[in-house]
Amino acid sequence: MRKSPMKRMLFLGNEPIANSTIGKLSACFDIYRKDGPILWTNSDVEVLWIDLSVSVDSSLLNNYHNLEIIVICATGHTNIDMLEISKRDIKLLSLKNHQDFLKLISSSAEHAWALLLAGNAQITEAHAHVKAGLWDRTHFKKMQLKDKTLGLIGFGRIGRKLAIYGNAFDMKVLGFDPYLKSKESDLVTCLTSQEEVLANSDFLIISASAQTRPSVILGPEQISMLKVNAGLVNIARGSLVDELEIYNALKNNAISFYATDVLAEEDFKHLDLARNSARELLISSGKALITPHIGGYSSDAREMCEEHLLEVLLKGSCNCGI
Q1: Residue 115 to residues 84, 204, 219, 243: CA-CA distances in angstroms?
Q2: Cα dist from 278 to 9, 245, 307, whole Å
Q3: CA distance 152 to 150
Q4: Are 109 and 162 in contact (CB under 8 A)?
Q5: Which one of 55, 86, 154, 290 has the largest count of C-beta atoms within 10 Å of its C-beta?
Q6: Is the pLDDT of residue 38 over 80?
Q7: What is the pLDDT, as a whole number, of residue 211?
């Protein structure tokens, strides 16, 4: 029997893919990267493996007329125009809703906790202080986490892990999630409104989904409800907070710190610190701690996620297994 031709896959984006993943995919797909030799045209691409640096919209999709599947190694895909790919009957394979597998991944929750600890203890400022040849511990103020209140906006997979961490640090943990089916939990006191969580938290972590909560959930009104000197952590999406209001709250000492792994605009090709936009003001602020969306990018977790998507993709796309 004549063997059917392999589907053509293109890797598009900035993030490296593990050699083991590429090796296994090569058994079932004709693959290449944009930075490699161009062996065929865009119109030949049937599977597109992308990362969060790639914006999938009509202008990009117009180049790939035979595209059948988009693969992204992430739980969120706000970089993808879902309506556009639906109109073109393109399937999307991501980590979203792969709950049993995602229970094995703790990287994002661990990073959120690292941001909370670093923001509270002013780790980056203290390090810069010492590098400048200084040694004055009275310059820095932090609070013990023990007996403080941790608020969680979003109580899904990551929120539950954060509640475990909070309990381990002897904190009182409050949570709010409008999509939580059961309000009972031995990890957290589930409140009926976000406002209650805001008003009673010494530290607040946003881990809500930007897919289910597309609008700003921390704007001027909500920020005004926070305790004075509350510390904020955001590992969800930058679009869920009003970044200019966060900057103003930091400037006016209304909150103690803002530590985030995400920004509303993460395209640094157009970064201009002189612009005084919300993003640039935050980056320039001495009280904001910002990391470049690395929460879920631990090397071992990344490889596990690639292997999982590879398995799901191959089960649906070919019979060779892995």
Answers
A1: 35, 11, 21, 17
A2: 38, 8, 38
A3: 7
A4: yes
A5: 154
A6: no
A7: 65
Q: Considering only CA atoms, which of 18, 16, 55 is closest in space to residue 35?
A: 16
Q: How far apart are CA 81 and CA 87, in angstroms?
A: 10
| Helix%, strand%, coil% for the chain, nearest 5 | 35, 15, 45
CB 151 within 8 A of CB 174: yes
pLDDT by residue (tens digit) across 243-296?
999 999 999 999 999 999 999 988 887 788 778 899 999 998 888 999 999 999
Whole-number Å distance between alpha carbons of 52 and 44: 23
In the 8-state DSSP scheme, what is residue 275? S
Stretch 78-85: mean pLDDT? 93
Which residue segments constitute the domains of the chain, with CATH numbers given? 7-101+299-317 (3.40.50.720), 107-290 (3.40.50.720)
Q: What is the pTM of this model?
A: 0.87
Helix 107-121 crosses helix 157-168 at what angle (to 10 degrees)? 50
- The pLDDT assigned to 34 comes to 61
Question: pLDDT tens across 172-225, in order?
Answer: 999 999 887 666 678 899 998 999 999 999 999 999 987 666 578 899 999 999
Structural tokens at position 168: 């381990």
Which pLDDT band, with edges at 50, 70 and 90, does 92 fall under?
A: very high
